[in-house]
Amino acid sequence: MNTRKLILATISAILFSGIFTISADAQNLSGTYMFAKRDTCNLFFDVYDPTPGSETTFEGIQKPTLLFVYGGGFVGGFRSNERYFPWFKILNDNGYKLITIDYRLGLKGVPMSFSLIGKIKTAKNTVKAVEIGAEDLFSAVNFIVENAGTLGVDPKNIVLVGNSSGAIISLGAENFICNGEPIAAGLPEGFNFKGLISFAGAIVDDNGTPKYAKEPCPTIFMHGTADGTVQYRKTQVFKLGMWGTDILAGIFKKNGYNYCVYRFHEHKHDIADNYAALWPYQKYFLEQNIMLGRRCIIDAYIDDPSVPSWEAATLDSLY
User: Fold this and answer.
1) Distance from CA of residue 126 to its chain's centroid?
2) Does the pTM of the predicted model rise above 0.70?
């Protein structure tokens, strides 16, 4: 897409999305772009630029663009919810460009059941929701790559970030890329993310325990050990299942992949929304594992009263 078309797409987004606002908490929002048209909706992303005067390099290395996929149980949420703004500000003040994307909510309006029999249908529906979300994520990636110069993004320097269902989509998308799945076939040849940040994520699939045909990008996992919304360990019915941080970290360790995992003692799903409090862990990972390219493997069990804890979303409250 040329610059003129990109400008028109931006104007269209502003006029027709009905949601383009700049508040004091979103002062670094520099543009909203429509990146895909679907049968049911148009999809947009917001771009937040580094705060003027902030340091956009680390030891002479350009900081990556962060691409954020929000959570909401595949039934709700919004790419730039005000609750994210304090974290967005931390990222921008620390010199990071941020892009937050829409995706179709694959479980919205879908009956859910967590009875023994209902789990199978629910799992199949969730697998489909992940595929829909990954398809939309890949469309956003393609738009960013095609318009990298105008957006000021290096396509080889994008770190994917997701929380809760957004982390499930993100981890699933990386798995699709590494396994050469058809859903990832439309990406530029050889494309992969520079890294991945997962807040209370998991892989939901119908192929059994996750495998990687080639090494995934460096990944940081953060999860509460008592999380029953997105499983910290796993839940499985035949080959259908959800494999959480504990299982995925074990796979990464066994295969010698580049990862960090922080296991927060007795925290539940609140870790999915603890982005600001967990900034020091993100910062270290971005600087060491991503920008400096070091294999700083960390597997830590965190029992820290200073990390906020609250009653977060449960399956019953979501569905």
Assistant:
1) 16
2) yes
